[in-house]
Design brief:
The protein is 31% helix and 17% strand. It contains 15 helices and 21 strands. Strands 1-2-5-10-11-12-13-14 form an eight-stranded parallel barrel. Strand 15 (399-401) and strand 16 (408-413) form a beta hairpin. Helix 10 packs antiparallel against helix 11 (290-303). The longest helix has 18 residues, at 201-218. The protein is globular and about 70 Å long. The chain starts with 7 loop residues before the first helix and ends with a strand. Mean pLDDT is 90; it is low at 2-36.
């Protein structure tokens, strides 16, 4: 199933507000770091699939990778759900539940969806203990890496204690608790989970209390909120206000333009689905490059700098259900990856993406990432430029598309200088317009022209 903050004055006011809230609630502000250190779109987020990351698939094994990820240059780790997975109606394949498979050996292969949460305040025993999770978070913080966890607020597993103890907290259809429904009242197909009713105030508060548990007990830095568009914006605003009485947080919504109210107060970032789909199409030459400019310009008008887009060429959903970036983008995957960093917003790297993973990881079963594959140096370079401000954040003063040329290109005025991106998706060699052929080379070969399939990224510092 299927991150800028404000300007400096706004940041300071927001921070003082948080201190005031904390004081009024007698809660110790554990993380006294100013809000300037909360993500503003100039970081790189890395999605962690604990189950598939190592043979043991646990926190301790993943923790060994932290020095490598620090060296890669990522700033934020997003861990897919770390909670126990429901056993009742556990998905196997298609519409088949694991409990319907008679062969015990075959049935044991199916570990279920991480998004079918059995208990919001416990750790999946396959991943380790809560103490091991705390150790992982502490180690990340020592390395200067923030940690956010996946939060599934829209639904629970069928054997979550809430089902028995608070059946009124769920949505009903034909007199029975139902799986999530679409706007037409039909099943979304997520039959392994039960839909929560957000008209129930007691349930909303208990959900917030469960989120508080992970902030207060484990010192996490925020949440990636699953299907955030299906949960009322009022809940997310209430949750954030209560959570930030403890520490400043980063909130990422799995949502795009479904509900713009989500980005007024609750969330810092949203999913760049539209851009992602356009990148897929551009890579296959199904659309013209102007379509990319249109998405960027529209987003800037819609969100006015408050929230920003997370850019990606792959993630757990895209990889498992739609194929690897190599399948979807062919030989143009490299240019698409560069665009996720160079365009306004925050780039995402998914587990194994940095190591040439060209395989659809199974969603409900163990399917180990092959770390013997060659590392792709490009990602370390992209992270370096992002960290150093060459790719900026969402906070640029202009976005200027290249017009009147068969080259795809744009320029951005950033704090450090002007970024120029030029790409040739055709087969013929193209001349670079004189006024665009300036600055030092970040990527590509310096030249007055770009060969078919090639690219050039330059930077002109402010004097």
């Amino acid at each position: 199933m299927p991150i800028k903050f404000m300007n400096t004055m706004s940041k300071t006011l927001a921070f003082l507000s948080i201190l005031l809230i904390a004081s009024c609630n007698s809660v110790e502000l554990k993380d006294k770091t100013l809000l300037e250190n909360i993500p503003a779109g100039n970081e790189t987020i890395y999605e962690v699939n604990i189950r598939q990351y190592s043979k043991d698939g646990d926190f301790a094994s993943f923790q060994k990778h932290l020095p490598r990820l620090k060296d890669l240059g990522v700033n934020i780790l997003w861990l897919m759900p770390i909670h126990p997975i429901g056993e009742r109606k556990r998905k196997a394949y298609g519409d088949i539940f694991a409990e319907e498979i008679s062969d015990s050996i075959e049935r044991a292969k199916f570990l279920g969806s991480p998004y079918a949460v059995k208990n919001y305040r416990e750790v999946n025993p396959d991943f380790g203990t809560i103490e091991e999770f705390k150790s992982l978070v502490d180690h990340c913080h020592e390395l200067g890496i923030k940690v956010i966890i996946d939060w599934v607020a829209n639904h629970t597993a069928w054997d979550n204690p809430w089902i028995e103890n608070h059946p009124d907290w769920y949505t009903y259809k034909n007199g029975e608790i139902t799986d999530p429904l679409n706007s037409s009242g039909e099943s979304e197909g997520w039959t392994d989970v039960a839909d929560l009713n957000y008209e129930k105030a007691a349930m909303r508060q208990e959900m917030i209390n469960s989120m508080k548990f992970w902030v207060q007990e484990c010192d996490i830095d925020g949440f990636r909120c699953d299907v955030a568009y299906s949960v009322p914006a009022s809940f997310w605003e209430e949750a954030r206000a209560q959570l930030e009485a403890y520490k400043p947080l980063f909130m990422l919504a799995e949502a795009e333009a479904h509900n713009l109210d989500l980005y007024n107060k609750a969330f810092d970032a949203f999913y760049g689905w539209e851009l992602h789909h356009k990148l897929n199409a551009l890579a296959k030459k199904e659309i013209q490059s102007d379509a990319i400019h249109s998405v960027v310009i529209k987003n800037r008008k819609q969100f006015s700098g408050r929230a920003f887009r997370m850019n990606f060429i792959t993630n757990h959903d895209e990889n498992s259900w739609n194929g690897s970036e190599y399948e979807r983008m062919g030989n143009n995957w490299e240019k698409m990856a560069i665009l996720t960093f160079a365009l306004p917003g925050m780039p995402l790297i998914y587990s194994g993406q940095e190591n040439s993973l060209n395989h659809r990881l199974k969603f409900f079963e163990k399917d180990l990432i092959d770390w013997s594959l060659p590392e792709i140096p490009l990602y370390k370079t992209l992270c370096k430029y992002k960290n150093e401000g060459y790719f900026g954040s969402n906070e640029d003063t202009s976005y200027q598309p290249l017009k009147g040329s068969d080259l795809f290109g744009f320029q951005r005025n950033l704090e450090k200088g002007k970024l120029t991106v030029l790409m040739n998706f055709g087969e013929k060699t193209m001349e670079i317009p004189t006024e665009w052929n300036q600055g030092k080379t970040l990527l590509g070969a310096p030249s007055n022209e770009i060969k078919g399939g090639a690219y050039w990224i330059g930077f002109t510092p402010h004097h």
